[in-house]
Amino acid sequence: MTTTTATSGKQLFRSFHTESSNEENARLLTADPKTVDYELIYFKISCLAATARHLFAFGKINWKNSFPTDWDEEKYDSPFGLTPLLHIRSQGKELTLTESIVIDFYLAKKFDLLGSNEYEEHVIKAFYSSIHALRDRSLRCMTWTYADKRKEAFETWTTENIPRWIKIKEQHLERNGSNGHFFGEKLSLADIHLVSVIDHFAELPRGEEIVALFRASPLLWKVHETVLANPDIAAWRESDEFKEIVKGGKIVYAKSRF
Questions:
Q1: Which domains does the chain have, with CATH numbers?
Q2: DSSP-derived secondary structure letter, 88
Q3: pLDDT by residue (tens digit) across 48-88?
Q4: Where is the GST C-terminal domain (predicted)?
């Protein structure tokens, strides 16, 4: 839903104000997911949409994975001109969520992946945030840093930054009983997000070296394997669509050339 100003003729980015009231939009967000159609918009890579895709697989609901074909034009259908986007439609009504964190939190709440009480929810979100930050910082400081600095950055990240991050998380995993979950006794958003971020690293040049750091941690890798043991998530990861996304990511990140 894009508009054009009458005075300047410039296209405007999608507004959060819709034809429905805020109260109606709130009801759409909380509707039974079996009565709603979901369309996730993101590029054919893992990165920022990987967790949402895993969450949809876990939730076993009707959803569509869509990929931009002409983002220079399609960006105006986004409130901030960025992806991912989640279009939510039901009974002639539609709204759009943007920003990966917002989308992930929304779906995790919908599918009961934020623990059993408010304290567990915030702890799970804290782990999620730390996992998210690891990927975000690595993109800025390693993957897409200045070309002549990338090899040095890769060495720093694989010998210092990621090992330090892993060591800290191992302490918390041990305190949680080494049960394959970051917090609590059941699958959570944080667990799934770890898998998605490892997937992201796997798509990078020399990605196998980064993944090996996680694999070398029995406690972290147990979380990874616990998530993959979910049959619905496993089925998604075996799909042709998932494999095409992984292939697309490797093509994109090949340009980083560590």
A1: 3-110 (3.40.30.10), 118-256 (1.20.1050.10)
A2: E
A3: 999 999 999 999 999 999 999 999 999 999 999 999 999 99
A4: 117-249
